[in-house]
Amino acid sequence: MMVAFLLIVLVAVALGIIGVAAHGLGYLLAIGIVLFLADVAFITVRGGRRLRRKPLR
Questions:
Q1: Which residue ranges traverse the bilayer (predicted)?
Q2: What is the tally of structural domains in the chain?
Q3: Which of 4, 13, 35, 45 is most buried by its number of CB atoms within 10 A?
């Protein structure tokens, strides 16, 4: 799961850099930001569920 998170963050950063560097491709920056925020929200929700579980004994 962590590998997928890091891969999506890497793709978001790459899209952001391309969007800033290339003229007329500002939409890639927007896509990168949205992708990054969605990924962080997904991991936050997933981590929140794990904290609520009681340990098995």
A1: 26-45
A2: 1
A3: 35
